[in-house]
Write a structure and sequence with these properties.
alpha/beta; 13 helices; 454 residues; 17 strands; eight-stranded mixed sheet; TIM Barrel; 2 domains
Amino acid sequence: MKAAYVVILAAGLGMTAPSTGSGQAPSAGSRQAPSTPARPRPATQAPAGPPTAPFPPTGPAIAITNARIMPVSGPAIERGTVVIRGGKIAAVGANVQPPAGARVIDAAGKIVTPGLIESATQIGIVEIQGGASGTDDQSSTDKDLSAAFDVVDSFNGESTVIPVTRVDGITRAVVVPAGTGHALLGQAALFDLTGAEVPASVVKSPVAMVANLGEAGAASEGGSRASAMLRLREALQDAVDFDRNRAAWNAAQRRPYARGRLDLEALVPVVRGQLPLAVNANRASDLLAAMRLADEFHLKLILMGAAEGWMIAEQLAARKVPVVVKPLTDIPSFDALAATLENPARLSKAGVTLLLSSFDTHNARNIRQEVGNAIAYGMDRDAALRAVTLEPARVWGVADRLGSLEVGKDADLVVWSADPFELTTNVERVFIKGVEMSKDTRQKQLLERYRVIR
């Protein structure tokens, strides 16, 4: 049985990469206007540059009509219309009329939301985790490299993981490094899931410096939480000194540093408060330790995981520390004895800035189920939608162009058959930057190839 599975997987990986273009036949509720390119390739987009120019007043338009629109930035719009033009949202509202010559998609009975944002994944840098050599670039064993490790240089826009994630309504993803053998893991970046290569796929880079505390941090730094904190503090102290005395260091007139030049340069924006430090930790005491570290160095802090976050919800809310959690974390461990499915609801009700994530790669598409469970265990439905749209956009610094359905923002949106967080709901259409994405995936291709086995 295993041999047969390996043969099928290998055959699937050897196939031509699935198209990510618009190549969709118009449905009964769609009137076709000018065709879109077969494969979206944004012309230019600087990795960390300013927002793109406002939408052009003329050009081909798409109007999605008669839908229940959830803009996130405001109340729901019943039987509303969204107009897309030039990759941007040109109009949205209850009384919007489709422009002359627009391709009109009748979405009566459907729901339209912004595209979902996955906030912690290795999509594009892992193809077969722990499997075939050369397909797993999430970590490094180079002992001289930690903070400078940059996922952008490993991102593969042709990854077969991208289409299968995208067809479930996820349009952007924060890709995070997984390990360097140090408490510092490296730099995370935000990508679109069009299937374009770097730099066209890069929305913002870096969005955060990632580090481990808790059990994971201890395992990489001598076996103790104390040693992990000490090494992390040492790296930050060295970065502060390096930033203040770079000329002296270049002239070999400064003490040796624990980390090399590449790592120190990568840490300078962190100690200047320009780049957030995203710390993976779960135990309440580890979360508090991360907050003390942020106070000591005046850092912008984001907490990742936070399975016991509900225990210190008031402190997190008062400090306005963003928290990224996985809703389906409830199996206790020594790193998270107080894990509970009510964690998102309790954090949200306490006023914590909350993001929801699958913390997965090949199953990142299950974020809808994760969010649905958060709602089932007490989280407000509107807050849950914000936690995978507008809140991630704000925390990762791209709310000027993503996260809600507002005029002038990138036209990332999803047409759902019903409630997005019900398992029986289907994704009917996905748009990224105004281009309708293909529904083709490797799984569908394998189904067709092996539908009849002789």
